[in-house]
Amino acid sequence: MINLQISTADDSGRSHKTTIDVEGENMLYDNHSGYGWYRRSLQGTKISPNQFRNATEPTIKAITQWLNNWLGWGKKGRPTFSGFIIIRNSKIHVAKHGNKYLIQGMVTTKDTAITALARTVFRSCFEADHHVLETYCFNNVLLPENVSYALENRAPYHWYLKGKRIEVRFNVKMIGPDECAMEISDGIWAPIPIKKLNTYMNYYHKGQKSSSWYKARLTPKKLWLRLLKEEPTIAQQHMMIEFLQQNRTDELVQKRAYQLVKDMSIQYRDRLKVFWDGDSVKAILVRGIIADWVITDNQFKSEIQAVSTYVYYEGETNLGRLGGFTSNLKGPICIDNLTKHSSVGDQFAARAFALLNDKMTVALVSTINHYLSKEHYDGQTEHRIKFHEVTDNEITKICNGQN
Known about the structure:
The protein is of the alpha+beta class. The protein is built from 13 helices and 17 strands. A hairpin with a 2-residue loop joins strand 13 (272-277) and strand 14. The longest helix is centred in the middle third of the chain and has 19 residues, at 249-267.
């Protein structure tokens, strides 16, 4: 039995824990191939999502990578496992026959099989009931992670216009137990089987160049033909291009994120104050449990740090303060995102949510403690920003690095 430790998505040094073992015909103790030594070296393995920041879900990607190697599915010349995988106390049968993979008797792709197992491994860190875990794994095979992602976040698609890559998102909905539909133009829904949508997402979502979708290099016209089995008219092509331009990924993601910020400002009207720059967020003031915070758009953006975070404090003197708070900010505090794919709006929302419960966030993010003082404690009311006195000009100065 292997005791797995899966590092949490922060810098607390803590881990989620579960166990995994096997029983089957192609045992992983094959000393003739040297594979037995490899397996023994994995006792007490620690899996870290920090190595997979480019993935949409770094934790699941990290577990997937480990499973690939452990089962011998990731490298040629290594014995390939077939038999029961015991995740905590649930037994899941897997097998490989040629290019086909089976889980609990269901034929599927390697990607779907390994992702379903990875999700079940992670779920087992928080769930002990073997019926729940086995059902969860089964459901992940029936509805692959790729398809779930498309239903929840729209299906990505890209093509090139005058050498420039244009990225867009299609609405997706289930229209049957084994079929979905993608809205590829205004009101034009193209049916697509779940298995085909899964392979579509392998390229357009995960970038797998072994996919037939990559080899096809589909323009909008060719995509229409492939899905609807007929060529679009000139008018339909023009309508499709216009529709795609209105559904560009970057605009959709930011719009959704800023709507979330608006919803948060209404739900937490007594603890959040948002400063807007047109349709974009300029800054958010957050009233936490131990302190008040200022989150601003970072003029020196990086993929994992697109916003800046400051904590409010009151020093020994209040001389030179602007509007009662500007020169009393400490920061910016280094708080990185685990994934590199979060938009500015998403990072604003994530930081605001985290700092509403700053007592917990401070325990999880070690870089914050350095900026706190004895005036920051649970439930304090004296050392707070007067939200109603903060002006837009002061916020602009902070954003420009003039605090």
